[in-house]
Design a protein that fits this description.
The structure holds 2 protein chains of 2 kinds. By secondary structure, chain A is mainly alpha-helical. Chain A contains 17 helices and 1 strand. Among the domains of chain A are: about 110 residues, Cytochrome Bc1 Complex, Chain D, domain 2, CATH 1.10.760.10; about 70 residues; about 45 residues, no CATH class. Helix content of chain A is about 55%, strand content about 0%. By secondary structure, chain B is α/β, with parallel strands linked by helices. Chain B has 5 domains: about 60 residues, no CATH class; about 210 residues, 3-Layer(aba) Sandwich (Rossmann fold); about 160 residues, Dimethylsulfoxide Reductase, domain 2 (3-Layer(aba) Sandwich), CATH 3.40.228; about 130 residues, Barwin-like endoglucanases (Beta Barrel); about 260 residues, 2-Layer Sandwich (Alpha-Beta Plaits). Chain B is about 30% helix and about 20% strand. In chain B, the strands form 13 sheets. In chain B, strands 6-5-17-16-15-7-8 form a 7-stranded mixed sheet, with helices on both faces. In chain B, β34 and β35 form a beta hairpin. The longest helix of chain B has 20 residues. In chain B, about 55% of the residues are buried. The chains are: A mainly alpha, B alpha/beta. β1 of chain A pairs antiparallel with β1 of chain B, so a sheet runs across the interface.
C-alpha cells in the first residue's frame, strides 16, 4: 500500500527466496506423504537431548535396537512415567535406572500411538520411514556451502568496506584537488574536466554515505565472543538437539528464550567434559549455580527498540524454520548473525511467504480472500495480503 | 576489546549517576533542553553556534565509527515453570489503601507488575476500577519509598529495630503504660484477628482507627436509629429515584466503583430498555456525581439541613408522620418529594455530610419511604470508614496530657491531615515511643523514632472484607523491591508469633473455608479468583427507633466553605503520584494544583477572575477558579494538596486545607466553616487547565436528549446523523475490509467522566508525564481525554463528559497530509502511527479535527528536566515492554491498544481458532466502571459494536466532515421532564 522505499540487496533476497521455497517444499512434501512418522521425528527431538540412535551412550542409553532388547509394553510404561514404573518395583526398570547413574527420565505426555511411532522411527535408524535420503536431511545440503559462503561473505564485506573507505578518501582528495586547480593553480585549462570529476565523486561519495548510514546500527556478521565457549555445532549439529529443546519458549512467547541453567543441567549433570574444551567451559555452568548468578550471554540478534518481533508468531503460527533467519546454526561454533535483520529483509519475506491460510481456523474470517482462492483468482495468500507490510504489524 | 568497551560504558554510567542531583532539591526554573539562561534569551553568539556545530559533527562522526554497544541477554538461573519471559501473568489481588476498595487483577511481565485491571469475578467491583486504583501501580516504583528501616532518622536494620522496639514495648507493658495503635480503617479480617492477638500479648495497647475524611456520623445515626453502629450497603441498582446531598458516590463516597457499576447499570438504554433511574443532587461544589445528576440544585452547606428537613416534611406530611418547623428557604423540593413518594421502597436518599443530625433526617426519610431492606441493606454492612472522630480527639487530648507512652501508626498521616495539626504534633512530642509504618518518609514518619516501612500492597499478603460476606485476597505480585516488611509481619515479630504473615493468613483462611463454604472453594481457588463470597445468613432488618429530628447548627454569616476530594488526588495519599497529579480533574480540567472554586456570580460581585489569588482566612493563598455550578456564596477547595514530605512530584504542590475542616460538632466535617476571602491585589497564580474552551461553537459535538423524548423518538437529539449519512459524498474510494474492522462505541449516557480510562490508557501505553509548565503550554500527552461541556444556565449548568481519543477515521484527514506516510490506514481499519518514520512536521496534528494527536516536544525519558517517573531506574519499571517509549520529535496518539489486538490475534492463531467476540479488550474499556466503552470487530454482525452501530442513538463525532470515524458515540439521555 505504501512504497517503503527500502533498497534490497538483490542477490541475498534471491538466495533467501530459493532457500525458503526449497524448505517449504521439503516440509510440505514430507508432511503430506508420511504424516505420523514425520511427527515421530519431531517428537524424538526431545529424546535426542539424552539419547542417540547408534551414536553411543549420552545421558541415557543408546536406543539402537531398543525394540529388540525390551518388550513394547515395557517401553510404553517406561517412556510415559519412568519414576512411577521404577517405584512400582519392576526389576528391569530399576536396573536400567541404576545403570544410568540414577538419573530419572522425565515423564512424557505422549499417546501409545505416538510412542510406537517413535519406536518405528528408531528401528528405522533415525529416519522417517519410506522417505528417501534427500527428504530426511532436514537441513538442505547447501547449508554447508552457505555457511562457508557466509564466512567468506563476512570477510568479503570487510574487504569491501575497506575498499569503500579507500574510495571515499581518494574521491574526497580528488574533489579538493580539482577545486584547488579550478580556483588557484589552474593547470588544466578545460574546465569541464573539473566538473565531471567533481560530479562523479559527489555521486559516488553520496552513495557510499547513503549505504553506510543505512547500515548504521545493523550488525550483519556480528559474532561476539560469548562468556562460555558454547558450541551450537556440537549441540545442534553433532548431537542433533532440537532448537526448541533449549529455546523452549519460541513456540509460545515473543522471546525464543536463552535457556536457564536448569535446562543445561538436564544433560550437564552428567556430561561434565567436552570433547574440545574439557571441563573448562562446562565448569562455568556449575560455577554459575554455585554463585547463584545467571550467565550473562551477549545478545547477537538485536532489533531496534521500535520493532516488535514475536517468535511465537513466526515459529509456531507461521511455521518458519529457525534457520531461515538464523542461518545454519548447527554449523556454527560461535553464533554469527547471518542476515542483516533490516526492514527490507523482513518485508521481503512478508511479501513472499505464504500464510497457513487453509490450515489455521483463525484465517476463516477472511471471506473475500477465501473466495478469491476458490475462484482461482489467487493461488496463495501471502503475509502481505493480510496486512503483513503495514506499519503496526511491527511498530507500536 | 569489546569487553573493555563495556566496562568503560559502565564507568560512564557511574559517572552519569554521580552527576545527577542528589536528593529532592527543587529544580531550577525550567529551561529548554539544558541551555543556560543567556542562550534562552537569545544571546548565543556566532562563536557558540560554530562551537556547537563543530561538536555535533565530531560527535556524529565518533558515534558512527563506534561499534554498536554490547547488549546482554541474561536468562534466569532457574526458570520457574509458570514464568515465560515475554508472556504476561495475571494475579488476582485486592487494592485497599485505607479508603478505597477494589478487587483487581495485576498484570505482571517478567514478574514485574505493570498494569492493574479490574477483576471481573468480583461481585462488588465487577471489572471496574478507579483512576486511583489504576495509578497505584506507579506507587510501587516511587523513588520516595523507604529502602530500609530507620531509627531517629538514621538507617537501621530489622534485627536492631525489632530488638529495641520489643524491649520497649515489653517494658511499657510491664509498667502498664498506655500504648496506642493508631491505624487507618482496616477491613482485613485476618489483620484484625492478628491485632487482637497482638493486643492480648501487650494488654496495655489500645487501638484507635482514624480516617482523615470520616463517615462516623452515619454510624452514629444508625446506632441511634437501629442500635447498630454500621454503614449499610446501598443498592443504587435497585433505586429508581436517588436523592443525594453532597454524597459523591460516583467519585469518592464509600464504594465509588461499586456504586458506579450499579448506577450506570440501572440507566442502560440498550436492547430496547427505556427504564432509567433519576438522580437529584443537592450540593455546594460541582462534584462528579453532581455533574451526572438529572437534576442538580446548588445549595450552601448551611442550607443542607433546611432542604433535607423540608424534604422530610413534604414526605412526612403525606405519610402522616410528625413534621418539624423549618425556616423558609428558597428551594422547592416538591418534585423530588413526589418522585420519592411515587417510588416508595425503590428510592434512596443519601448524604455525604459527616453530621449526625443530617444523617438522622436522612434515615427518617428513608424509613418513611420504606427503603430499608430494599435499597438499603443493614445486614450487608460496609466495613469502610471505621474511624471514630471522637476517639481520635480523645487520643490527641491524652497525648497532649502526656498520658500516651507509645504510639504505633499504620497507614495514617495525622501530622499532615489532622485538622489541628499543631495540636497533634505537640502531643506527639510528648509520646515516648513513636513508631511509624509509613511506606515513605511522610510528615508523620519524620517525627517518629522508628520508621518500619511497610511493603507496597503489590508486595504484600492480605485479605479484605469491604462489605460483609464479600471477601477478597491480596497477594504479592513481586518480591519486596527494598528491605521493607509488611506491617503485619512487624507486629508478628514484636509479638513473637513465630512464622510469617503469609502462613498466618493461610491458616486463618483454611479455617474460614472449612465452614459456610457452599461451593467448596479451596484456598488455591480463592487465590486464583481473588474473591470469595461467604454464605450470608439473611438477618432480619432491625426495627427503626425514631429519634427527634433537629436542624444542625449552621453558620451562614459569610462565605461558606465546602472542602472536597479530587477524583485523582483524593485525601492526599497519592500526592506523589505524577499520573494522578497530571490527570485533569473531570470537572475543572485542572492539573497539578488545588484552587478556590467560586461561582460566576460571586466572582463578578467580588471582582475575582480566573487565576487571581485570594487569601482564605488571611492565611492560605490560593488561585481562583470560577466554577459554573458552584453554589453562590460558597468556596470549594480540594483536600490532599500542600504535602511537604510526599516526594519529588508532590512536594509543595497546592495548599493544605485540612485545617479548615469543621470540627465544631463531635465529628470532623468537610463543610460548615465560614471563611474570609480577600483578593490579593495584583497577584496571580497560573493554573494548568486542559480545556479552556467550554462551548461547542454550535456544532453538535455532544448530543443529548431527555428520556421522554427518547421514548417518543429514539433518534431524538441525533437527527443530524441521518442527514449527514444521506448527504455525504466523497471523491475517495470506499475502504473495503476483509475479516476484521476494529471499531469502538462509547455510550455517553453511561459515561460519568471518572477519568479511570485516562489513567488506564496512560499506564498501558507508556504515556509521559510532562509537568505543569508544559500542560499549560497545551502539550499534555494523554492519548485519551475527557472533554467536558457545559450547557444552559451558567450558575447551574448541565454537564457533559465525553471521552475523546483518536477516532481512527476511515477517511482520515491526518493521513493525507503526512509527507512521509508515517501515519496511514491499516486493512483492519486502524489509523496507524509509525513513530520511527515520523519526522515531526505536525501537519497531521493541524489537520486532525478531533485534536487527539500529541507531539513529543521534548525527550521525556531519562531527562531530569522532567523529574517524574521516566527519569529514574525505579520509575521506568512500570513501563509496558510491549509498547515503545516515544522519543522527542514524533507524533503519537491512541492506537486502539494495537499491542492487545495483536496479542489476542496471535493467541487465536496459536490455538487454531477464530477470534472470539469480546476477546480483544482495550485498556480504557477493560476497567471502565460504567461499561461505557465497547470495542470489537465491525465485520462481525453479531458483535456488540456492530449492534450498537445500528442503534438510533449512535452518531459519529463531527460526522459532517465525512471522516468516517471507526469510533462512534451514543447520545446522552437525561431523565428529565423537559
Amino acid at each position: 500500500m505504501i512504497n517503503t522505499g527500502i533498497v534490497f540487496k538483490k542477490p541475498l533476497a534471491l538466495n533467501a527466496f530459493l532457500k525458503n521455497g526449497l524448505l517449504i517444499l521439503l516440509l510440505l512434501f514430507s508432511s503430506l506423504s508420511f504424516g505420523q512418522t514425520a511427527e515421530a521425528e519431531a517428537n524424538f527431538a526431545v529424546c535426542k537431548a539424552c539419547h542417540t540412535i547408534g551414536g553411543g551412550k549420552l545421558v541415557g542409553p543408546d536406543l539402537k535396537g531398543v525394540t529388540e532388547r525390551r518388550e513394547e509394553a515395557w517401553i510404553l510404561r517406561f517412556v510415559k512415567n519412568s519414576t512411577e514404573f521404577i517405584q512400582s518395583g519392576d526389576p528391569v526398570a530399576k536396573q536400567v535406572f541404576e545403570e544410568n547413574n540414577s538419573i530419572p527420565m522425565p515423564p512424557n505426555n505422549l499417546t501409545d500411538e505416538q510412542i510406537k511411532d517413535i519406536l518405528l522411527y528408531i528401528e528405522n535408524g533415525g529416519k522417517v520411514a519410506g522417505a528417501s535420503e534427500a527428504v530426511v536431511e532436514q537441513t538442505p545440503k547447501p547449508a554447508q556451502d552457505e555457511l562457508e559462503s557466509t564466512m567468506i561473505l563476512a570477510e568479503k564485506k570487510q574487504a569491501e568496506a575497506q575498499n569503500l573507505y579507500i574510495t571515499f578518501i581518494i574521491l574526497s582528495v580528488l574533489i579538493v584537488i580539482s577545486i584547488f586547480d579550478l580556483l588557484v593553480s589552474k593547470i588544466l585549462k578545460a574546465r569541464w574536466i573539473h566538473v565531471v570529476i567533481m560530479l562523479i565523486s559527489v555521486v559516488v561519495i553520496g552513495e557510499i554515505v547513503f549505504l553506510e548510514s543505512a547500515a548504521l546500527g545493523r550488525q550483519q556478521y556480528y559474532q561476539p565472543e560469548q562468556p562460555i565457549m558454547f558450541s551450537h555445532k556440537v549441540h545442534a549439529g553433532q548431537n542433533k538437539i532440537d532448537c526448541k529443546y533449549c529455546h523452549f519458549t519460541a513456540d509460545e512467547s515473543m522471546h525464543a528464550g536463552i535457556p536457564p541453567v536448569n535446562v543445561c543441567m538436564n544433560c550437564h549433570s552428567q556430561v561434565k567434559q567436552g570433547k574440545l574444551t574439557g571441563t573448562k567451559e562446562i565448569d562455568k555452568i556449575y560455577s554459575a549455580i554455585e554463585r547463584n548468578k545467571p550467565i550473562e550471554w551477549i545478545k547477537v540478534h538485536n532489533l531496534p527498540d521500535h520493532v516488535y518481533f514475536n517468535h511465537a508468531q513466526h515459529v509456531n503460527v507461521g511455521k518458519v524454520a529457525c534457520a531461515e533467519c538464523h542461518g545454519p546454526v548447527e554449523k556454527m561454533d560461535q553464533i554469527i548473525q547471518v542476515e542483516d535483520l533490516s526492514m527490507g529483509w523482513c518485508i521481503q519475506c512478508h511479501r513472499e511467504k505464504e500464510v497457513q491460510f487453509a490450515d489455521n481456523k483463525f484465517y476463516d474470517q477472511y471471506t473475500k480472500l477465501h473466495q478469491q482462492i476458490k475462484s482461482g483468482k489467487i493461488s496463495k495468500v501471502t503475509v502481505q495480503m493480510i496486512g503483513g507490510d503495514e506499519c503496526q504489524k511491527c511498530h507500536y | 576489546m569489546e569487553k573493555k568497551y563495556w566496562q568503560s560504558l559502565e564507568a560512564y554510567k557511574e559517572l552519569k549517576k554521580s552527576e545527577l542531583p542528589q536528593g529532592n532539591e527543587p529544580h531550577a526554573e525550567f529551561s529548554i533542553e539544558g541551555l543556560d539562561e543567556s542562550e534562552i534569551k537569545g544571546k548565543s553568539s556566532r562563536r557558540d553556534f560554530l562551537k556547537m556545530l563543530g561538536f555535533s559533527v565530531s560527535a556524529v562522526a565518533l558515534a558512527s565509527s563506534c561499534q554498536t554497544p554490547i547488549r546482554k541477554a541474561i536468562p534466569l538461573l532457574n526458570q520457574p515453570e509458570d514464568l515465560i519471559p515475554g508472556v504476561p501473568n495475571f494475579y488476582a489481588s485486592t487494592f485497599f489503601d485505607g479508603i478505597d476498595y477494589c478487587s483487581i487483577l495485576v498484570k505482571t511481565r517478567e514478574n514485574r507488575p505493570i498494569k492493574i485491571e479490574g477483576n471481573d469475578l468480583s461481585p462488588l467491583t465487577k471489572s471496574g476500577t478507579s483512576a486511583r486504583v489504576q495509578a497505584s501501580v506507579l506507587n510501587l516504583y516511587d523513588d520516595a519509598r523507604l529502602r530500609k528501616p530507620f531509627n531517629n532518622g538514621n538507617e537501621s536494620d530489622w534485627e536492631t529495630i525489632d530488638r529495641e522496639i520489643s524491649q520497649q514495648l515489653g517494658g511499657l507493658a510491664q509498667e502498664g503504660k498506655s500504648v496506642v495503635l493508631l491505624t487507618s480503617t482496616i477491613i482485613s479480617p485476618t489483620t484484625r484477628k492478628l491485632i487482637k492477638e497482638f493486643r492480648e500479648i501487650y494488654p496495655n495497647i489500645t487501638w484507635t482507627t482514624y480516617d482523615e475524611v470520616s463517615a462516623s456520623a452515619i454510624r452514629k445515626a444508625n446506632e441511634q436509629n437501629f442500635g447498630r453502629a454500621v454503614i449499610p450497603f446501598y443498592h443504587f441498582d435497585k433505586a429508581t429515584v436517588i436523592v443525594s446531598f453532597n454524597a459523591d458516590f460516583l467519585g469518592n463516597w464509600l464504594l465509588p466503583v461499586t456504586f458506579s457499576k450499579q448506577f450506570s447499570g440501572r440507566r442502560k438504554l440498550s436492547n430496547g430498555n427505556t427504564d432509567m433511574s433519576r438522580l437529584y443532587m443537592f450540593e455546594s461544589a460541582m462534584s462528579l456525581t453532581g455533574s451526572n445528576a438529572d437534576y442538580r440544585i446548588p445549595i450552601k452547606p448551611s442550607e443542607e439541613g433546611l432542604v433535607l428537613m423540608s424534604l422530610y416534611n413534604e414526605i412526612a406530611g403525606i405519610s402522616g408522620a410528625t413534621t418539624y418547623p423549618v425556616p423558609s428557604h428558597g428551594f422547592d423540593v416538591k418534585q423530588a418529594a413526589m418522585d420519592l413518594l411515587d417510588n416508595k421502597g425503590k428510592s434512596l436518599v443519601v448524604s455525604g455530610t459527616n453530621n449526625v443530625n443530617i444523617q438522622l433526617i436522612v434515615n427518617a426519610i428513608n424509613q418513611l419511604l420504606g427503603n430499608y431492606a430494599s435499597t438499603i441493606d443493614l445486614n450487608k454492612t460496609v466495613n469502610l470508614k471505621q474511624g471514630d472522630d471522637e476517639r481520635m480527639r480523645q487520643l490527641v487530648a491524652k497525648m497532649n496530657q502526656g498520658q500516651v507512652a507509645g504510639l504505633l501508626m499504620y497507614n495514617v498521616n495525622p501530622a499532615y491531615n489532622y485538622p489541628q495539626t499543631d495540636v497533634f504534633i505537640s502531643g506527639l512530642k510528648k509520646v515516648g515511643l513513636k513508631v511509624s509504618f509509613a511506606e515513605t518518609m511522610d510528615e508523620t514518619a519524620l517525627l517518629c523514632d522508628y520508621v518500619c516501612p511497610d511493603n507496597n500492597y503489590l508486595e504484600s499478603w492480605n485479605d479484605a472484607e469491604a462489605v460483609k460476606g464479600y471477601l477478597s485476597i491480596t497477594q504479592p505480585t513481586i518480591q519486596p523491591i527494598f528491605n521493607t516488611r509488611q506491617f503485619q509481619d512487624s507486629l508478628m515479630a514484636w509479638g513473637s508469633f513465630g512464622g510469617d504473615f503469609s502462613t498466618y493468613l493461610e491458616a486463618n483462611w483454611k479455617g474460614l473455608l472449612s465452614s459456610g463454604n457452599p461451593d467448596g472453594k479451596s484456598w488455591a481457588k480463592v487465590k486464583h479468583d481473588g474473591v470469595y463470597t461467604r454464605k450470608a445468613d439473611a438477618g432480619e432488618t432491625p426495627g427503626f427507633i425514631p429519634q427527634g429530628l433537629k436542624l444542625p447548627e449552621a453558620n451562614s454569616s459569610g462565605v461558606e466553605l465546602a472542602l472536597y476530594e479530587k477524583i485523582g488526588i483524593g485525601t492526599g495519599k497519592y500526592s506523589n503520584n505524577p499520573w494522578l497529579l497530571e490527570m485533569p480533574d473531570p470537572i475543572t480540567t485542572a492539573t497539578w494544583d488545588n484552587y478556590a472554586c467560586v461561582s460566576p456570580k460571586f466572582a463578578e460581585e467580588h471582582q475575582l477572575q480566573f487565576e487571581d489569588v485570594v487569601k482564605i482566612n488571611g492565611q492560605i493563598e490560593l488561585p481562583v477558579l470560577v466554577q459554573p455550578g458552584q453554589a453562590y456564596g460558597t468556596v470549594s477547595i480540594a483536600l490532599g494538596f500542600g504535602r511537604t514530605a510526599a516526594g519529588k512530584a508532590g512536594n509543595n504542590v497546592g495548599q493544605n486545607v485540612y485545617r479548615l475542616m469543621n470540627g465544631k460538632n463531635s465529628t470532623f466535617q468537610l463543610s460548615g466553616e465560614v471563611v474570609s476571602l480577600e483578593k490579593v491585589i495584583g497577584k496571580t497564580y497560573p493554573l494548568a487547565l486542559t480545556q479552556m474552551h467550554h462551548t461547542m461553537e454550535g456544532r453538535p459535538i455532544a448530543r443529548e436528549t431527555t428520556l421522554r423524548d427518547f421514548i417518543k423518538n429514539p433518534s431524538s437529539g441525533n437527527e443530524k446523523e441521518r442527514f449527514n449519512e444521506e448527504n455525504n459524498t466523497t471523491l475517495y474510494q470506499k475502504v473495503n475490509f476483509d475479516g476484521i474492522q476494529w471499531g469502538m462505541s462509547i455510550d455517553l449516557s453511561s459515561c460519568t467522566g471518572c477519568a479511570n480510562c485516562v489513567i488506564a490508557c496512560q499506564a498501558e501505553n507508556n504515556v509521559a508525564v510532562i509537568g505543569k509548565e508544559q500542560v499549560k503550554n497545551r502539550r499534555i500527552m494523554h492519548w485519551m481525554r475527557i472533554d467536558r461541556y457545559y450547557s444552559e444556565d451558567v450558575e447551574n449548568p448541565e454537564v457533559f463528559h465525553m471521552p475523546t481519543m483518536c477516532q481512527h477515521c476511515d477517511n482520515a484527514p491526518c493521513e493525507n497530509v503526512c509527507p512521509v506516510a508515517a501515519t496511514n490506514h491499516s486493512t483492519e481499519g486502524l489509523n496507524q502511527m509509525a513513530y520511527n518514520r515520523c519526522i515531526g512536521t505536525r501537519y497531521c496534528i493541524n489537520n486532525c479535527p478531533y485534536k487527539v494527536r500529541r507531539f513529543n516536544w521534548f525527550e521525556f525519558t531519562n531527562n531530569n528536566q522532567f523529574d517524574y517517573n521516566m527519569n529514574s531506574e525505579l520509575g521506568k519499571m512500570v513501563l509496558n515492554p510491549d509498547v515503545i517509549v516515544r522519543q522527542r520529535g514524533v507524533v503519537e496518539k491512541c492506537s486502539l491498544c494495537i499491542q492487545r489486538i495483536q496479542e489476542k490475534k496471535l493467541l487465536a492463531k496459536m490455538e487454531n481458532r477464530p477470534l472470539k467476540e469480546g476477546e480483544v479488550v482495550v485498556a480504557c474499556q477493560q476497567s471502565c466502571p460504567t461499561d461505557a466503552i465497547g470495542f470489537g470487530n465491525l465485520q462481525n454482525p453479531s458483535s456488540k459494536v456492530s449492534k450498537e452501530r445500528k442503534e438510533k442513538r449512535t452518531y459519529h463525532l463531527l460526522g459532517h466532515l465525512h471522516t468516517l470515524p471507526s469510533t462512534t458515540y451514543m447520545t446522552k439521555v437525561r431523565n428529565k421532564e423537559s
